[in-house]
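Interim report to the steering committee. The following record documents the input for Cell division protein FtsZ (404 residues).
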Amino acid sequence: MSTLQISLAILGGVLLALIVAYNAWTARRNAPKRAQPAEDEPPRDPGHNLTERHEPALDLSQGGQRLEPVGPQTMPPAQAQEHADHAQPAARTEPALDGSAAAAEADSMGEAAHATEPAFAVPQAPAVPFERRPSLDSLIDAIAPIQPEHVIPGEGALQVQPTTRRAGSKPFRIEGLNQASRQWEPLQAGSRYTAFQAGVQLANRVGALNEIEFSEFVAKVQVFSDAVNASVDLPDMLQEVARARELDQFASEHDAQLTFMLRARQAAWSPGYVMQNAARLGFVPLSMPGRMALPSAAGGQPLLVLTYDAQAAMADDLDQSAIRELLLSLDVPQVHRSEQPFARLREAADGLCGAMDGVLCDQNGQALPVSVVEPIAADLEHLYDQLDSRELSAGSMLARRLFS
């Protein structure tokens, strides 16, 4: 081969290697980001058996030979006696501590324990006032009192109550006045009831109670009343339907559900990568694939909900599933204002954007500048005040039922 041919072959080989390296770099760059192993987990040898027992260390003073355990049973009689004599003083007991000494020791142990605690303090969730209200309320329910002729046991009431808990699209329920506690409660076995009340919700996010749903409610109440031999005082249909429409109008004007979109700037995310970064902010997985929630201090409805592609979450190889966007949602009427839900939403969005190299957008994928996001907080405070004035405070039991 001539020098020119050799040079061209070498140049072709170098060019081919550069092309292969560039393709590998591009594929690595565009591959979905994967979850990282825990930092505090030491690297594990793949061939290491967890059930393997470690041998005792060798004593270099004995020439590297393994020392077998030595005891009186393996010693000659003379050595065994000498061994017992030497071991006798070692088996001494600690002196008992009196009260002051014990307190001092406890203080020292407490200081040692505090010394091992992390330097930062985990913030406590804000306290949410707990309200004791019956499940039925005339503010959002049409209620029909039911008066039986005698005390009804809970077992009998449960047998004759309607099998469905809805009238159309509205929740329906029957409560009993407990003879012992004199409190309204859901029907349960073992209790005795002196009175009942049936109620149907006037409105929810589906709409207002209509005439057909009210008629279904009346039919259910009448069947139950006849079964327990009771008289019932049914509310006026036209009046309750009018109340339902007015309540639905108010709820429609004061309902708010905020949703932010987080989009990947460059490389996509794998489901494991999303879950790992969300878990660091307190999110926990839900039963539905592709959904996580930030728990609320009051329980019940979560404070925030994170959703991403459910198909990617159910893929066989989660490391190869690509996610380029996810949604952060806040159901405003469902969360108490004392938990500062919008601030928590901003904090979670900023934390995820910073950790995952994302950008904050609206539901259409348009980037949201700070000048657009900041005024939302003032609007929410005004919304909270209006809900409070109607005794439908955000996060309360009535608000959760109405905005559901």
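Residues 3-30 form the longest helix (28 residues). The committee is asked to note this result when reviewing the revised timeline.
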